[in-house]
Amino acid sequence: MALWCASALAIGTVGSVAWVRTAAHGYVYDEADVPAAPVALVLGAEVYDNGSPSAFLAARLDIARRLYLAGKVRAILVSGDHGRWEYDEPGASLNWLTARGVPITKVVLDYAGFDTYDSCVRATKIFGVDRAIVVTQSYHIARAVTVCRRVGVDAVGVGDSTVKHFRVDWAQSGNREHGACVKAVLDVVSGRDPVFLGDHETGVEEALRA
Q1: What is the pLDDT of residues 16-52, one digit of tens each?
Q2: Residue 10 domain-assigned?
Q3: What are phi and psi of 57, to 5 degrees?
Q4: CB 113 within 8 A of CB 88
Q5: Can you give the residue ranges of the DUF218 domain (predicted)?
Q6: Is residue 66 part of a domain?
């Protein structure tokens, strides 16, 4: 029985990873080549105790900043965890971007992007995003693009590899992707609601008009 369970788990994991990578094929680009979209969706990552973004999150934000300055996006939706008042990924992202020249009117905060699936679903159901460039690290980008596309966002993606020199963190995060791909399949198949859904928010619409 144990051997059967282990085999089933291995097959399920391999199949999930293959599904994610196949579904994202043709939708992941280098930054210079990515087609324009109205919105950059930056997925959340760790924020330090002093309120500054981790190197991983800062690298994502820097791509979004450059996409905005290049005219490839007209608004930036920063999604992340603000489940505790003292921990605020979207707020840290806003501060980082505005300190580097992105107008505050162009940055929209999603405080309930607790995981990739929640961020993608909320982008479309709460903020009305139907087309976006998703920004995250390169080990994560295939899953992010696949999930967003499967929940209704016409998404392409740009992945960052500049923080690869953090070898331990990079390797650990890459290894976690195998299990995360299984979760992505379960989330998409179940069509579950995010932890928080709520009413429509007009922040993205206002940022695009600004």
Answers
A1: 988 889 999 999 999 999 999 999 999 999 999 999 9
A2: no
A3: -70, -40
A4: no
A5: 39-155
A6: yes
